[in-house]
Design brief:
This protein is of the alpha+beta class. Helix content is 54%, strand content 21%. The protein folds into 3 domains: 3-137, no CATH class; 198-284, Helix Hairpins (Orthogonal Bundle); 292-436, Histidine kinase-like ATPase, C-terminal domain (Heat Shock Protein 90, 2-Layer Sandwich), CATH 3.30.565.10. It contains 10 helices and 12 strands.
Amino acid sequence: MKLSNKIALYNSLTKIVIILVLSFVIYVFTDGISNYHLQERLVDKGKKFMSGLTQDHIDDLIQSQVNFTDYNILKEEFIILTPIRKVINVNHDNFTKQTREIEGEVHEYLVYTYYFRFNHHNYRLEIGETMSVLAQLEKSIWLFTFLVLFISVAVTLIIDIAFTNRLLRPFYNIVDKKLNKIHDPLSFSYVPEKTNTEDFVLLDKSLMQLMEKVSKQLDVEKQFTSNVSHELLTPISTLSTRFENLLNDESLSAAAFKKINDSLLTLTFIKRTIKDLLLIAKIENGQYEKFEEINLANLVGEIEMEMEDLLASKDIHFHNMLAKDIHIKGNSTLIHILFANLIKNAIKYNKRQGTIKISNEIKDGNIILFFEDSGIGMTEEAVQRIFNRYERFSTSPEEGHGLGLAIVKSIAVFHAVDIHVSSILHEGTTIELSVPIPHS
């Protein structure tokens, strides 16, 4: 899970917990405050009732009945005045919750009860107010509060996500520009990422220092390979010339001729290996220009003609299915070597009377090239090692120095071409090249 998603998840969970806790606290406080205000309102009503009370008023209210009861039209409030024989606590009030049935309807009331003595007579005053109003009020307050909290949390969460993405943008830029899009340490960008977050500044600097060390080591390695290869070519060429002259000696025995000829073949193999190493070094050092327009269908046609005898030796059917108008920009010599090496490998590891098919499609702004063969195929482990230098496959009797596909990889990296290999053992191999479409 990405860091930004983890932060967003953490913020979401904490805010949900905050909503639940605050909702519970608000509910408890709302219930207490509502009850308190309802009690105060009932006491005020009792005081108003008592303030204008006279004996005539009491007599008029009670008249001949045992007590006086008055409900409002909606049954939300009532007042009951009852004469009693004895008052336990004069001028004492209390509050109780009672359920009463009025005209067939059951209501729950908060009842304020007040005992008092007036003109040597004892009375009980009861003032009640339905709890449904209180419940509706509490529900409205709670829903409103929950809605406000929910909207607030949602807004703050969106702001948090936006801020987190903005905060982590330099990190993703560093990963994208300086890791994902870098195919070679020599093309690494040493331009510092603009950020005021010290952690990202430290990461950027550390990465640049590391890549600088790697680049220096690679430069030394490439320079060494180039120098050694140049130094070896001269004596090898000299030895080859001497062996060729010896082979022209008519007095040479058959056994000596065979030994000298085998040595000459070995020198030729070494010479070809050294030239390939020099080619890789030149490619990786950027010594080639790559701004020529190349018609791929024509290029494959030329390579097919060059390898006509090799194809015929295995009776392989070659299908050039590339569109005639497919062009790329690159170094024609290197692209020729890349295609030739892929086709040569497809022939080398193919079956007799097998097939080789080269086709293309356009996808996501790239030209996708497919090199398909019906050869011996490879295991998944072999696919992982296919572009390693000096990697050879013992399943083929053909000789090779294991640098052909290493050269392919170097040329592909030089031209920003992505390579994907898929293979099924004993069925064949498909190599995909993803080439950027050149802009006019």
